[in-house]
């Protein structure tokens, strides 16, 4: 008989983000977020006002269909469901003194629906949806003013949901602000006009805000578990040349910087050297150092989609089209339809790297395959998607997760990205589908919004019901 390596109580589930699936962008008092003026994701500059071609304005209409969707998640057996709160539903502009009650009531209803089925909510406080007013009037996280606005927001939701939500993440993929400053940090200054001083000062503001949120959370409910969330991407040297090894190490340090500060509470030596050599002088306000040091996170969560290859002479290689954070094509790996290189073993490497470095519980909160799915009639007459490619991708990655657990890694759970089809963050397409549930909506905005179970739906249901045992059959 096959035995599973996944621990008892492992939190299996799926992940989504408010801005990519809720829709109802201007209903019940919601204000605009940066996503409402990003009709093409990060591929073109934002527009002045929301435009009809922005698929995120409707998303998949979770706002009106959340009961139907959560019921489907429960049918799969989800133990946890990662979602986010749209900051601008709670504080429409971001700088108001009082919250929007209709927004608070909506998330009460969502969390109650999850709890009805025994699903533990895992909530991201800020997932690429800075209120547009804060971006336009304050230049987003480039301004220290945002720390106070964020503290007011998190205090409000921590108090409101203190008996409904235990697991919280402060910022989604916080390290992505270096690569997508408007989407990730609400920074209105065009990226090409931002200095590294500007960017790293904004990073500092977010890190201080994250530590402050951790402090506030533990004061409101000591049982809260607060995690950071980083975009994980292991880097391999292109050759055994020590210069290439060093290039890979420097690339990884750009990401470790964020988890190092969240977990250890201080800027690491390699960051101090980088800042000194580049003439970057981070402005620490009184109390910042103590706040960071005394309010470290309870666990580390991360997204994992791909690895990168690095060299000291990058210009001599072909750079991968899908590698948003940089890197060059690895000749040993296949790529998805969007150029993201597929590397299951890299997930085991990431898990071991984080565990060896921090000895803190880990949580994989995003992992999945974006692909063009085709809706067909199944053997039972119901419409479905024969997505064996997604099943294979997830199975290979989860088997490597099992290997990491055998290696001794303490892993809390695993939530696949886009457990139901939603609008892509990077390209704002619906045709880039990740879910176990097909949503009938297309890139031109057409479709019924009907939900259909893909083949992977029943596959993941069995994975969860056997606590991973079925992965080894």
TrEMBL record:
Keywords: Glycosidase, Hydrolase. The keyword Lyase does not apply. Gene3D superfamilies: Glycosidases. One of its GO terms (molecular function) is hydrolase activity. Belongs to the glycosyl hydrolase 1 family. It comes from Ruoffia tabacinasalis. The lineage of its organism: Bacteria, Bacillati, Bacillota, Bacilli, Lactobacillales. The keyword Hydrolase applies. This is Glycoside hydrolase family 1 protein. The active site is at residue 366.
């Amino acid at each position: 008989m096959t035995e599973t390596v996944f621990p008892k109580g492992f939190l299996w589930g799926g992940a989504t983000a408010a801005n990519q699936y809720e829709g109802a962008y201007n209903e019940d008092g919601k204000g605009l977020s940066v996503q409402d003026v990003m009709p093409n994701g990060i591929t073109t500059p934002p527009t002045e006002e929301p435009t009809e071609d922005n698929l995120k304005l409707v998303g998949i209409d979770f706002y009106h269909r959340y009961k139907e969707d959560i019921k489907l998640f429960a049918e799969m057996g989800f133990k946890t469901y990662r979602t986010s709160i749209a900051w601008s539903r709670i504080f429409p502009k971001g700088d108001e003194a009082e919250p929007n009650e209709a927004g608070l009531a909506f998330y009460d209803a969502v969390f109650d629906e999850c709890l009805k089925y025994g699903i533990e909510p895992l909530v991201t406080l800020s997932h690429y949806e800075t209120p547009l007013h804060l971006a336009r009037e304050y230049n987003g996280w480039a301004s220290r003013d945002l720390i106070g606005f964020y503290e007011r927001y998190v205090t409000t939701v921590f108090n409101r949901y203190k008996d409904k939500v235990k697991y919280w993440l402060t910022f989604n993929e916080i390290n992505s602000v270096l690569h997508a400053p408007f989407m990730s940090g609400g920074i209105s200054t065009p990226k090409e006009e931002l200095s590294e001083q500007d960017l790293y000062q904004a990073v500092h503001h977010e890190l201080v805000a994250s530590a402050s949120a951790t402090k506030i959370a533990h004061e409101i409910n000591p049982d809260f578990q607060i995690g950071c969330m980083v975009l994980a991407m292991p880097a391999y040297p292109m050759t055994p040349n020590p210069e290439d090894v060093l290039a890979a190490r420097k690339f990884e340090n750009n990401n470790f910087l964020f988890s190092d500060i969240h977990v250890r509470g201080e800027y690491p030596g390699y960051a101090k050297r980088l800042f000194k050599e580049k003439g970057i002088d981070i402005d620490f306000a009184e109390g910042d150092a103590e706040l960071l040091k005394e309010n470290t996170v309870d666990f580390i969560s991360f997204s994992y989609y791909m690895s990168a290859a690095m060299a000291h002479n990058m210009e001599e290689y072909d750079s991968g089209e899908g590698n948003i954070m940089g890197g060059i094509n690895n000749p040993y790996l296949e790529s998805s339809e969007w150029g993201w290189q597929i590397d299951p073993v890299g997930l085991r490497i990431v898990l071991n790297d984080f565990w060896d470095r921090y000895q803190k519980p880990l949580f994989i909160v995003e992992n999945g395959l974006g692909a063009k799915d085709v809706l067909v009639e199944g053997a039972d007459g119901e419409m479905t998607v024969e997505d064996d490619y997604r099943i294979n991708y997830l199975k290979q990655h989860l088997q490597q997760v099992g290997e990491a657990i055998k290696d001794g890694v303490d892993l809390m759970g695993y939530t696949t990205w886009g457990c139901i089809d939603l609008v892509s963050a990077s390209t704002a397409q619906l045709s880039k589908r990740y879910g176990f549930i097909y949503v009938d909506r297309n890139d031109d905005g057409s479709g019924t919004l009907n939900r259909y179970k893909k083949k992977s739906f029943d596959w993941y249901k069995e994975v969860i019901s056997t606590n991973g045992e079925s992965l080894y059959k």
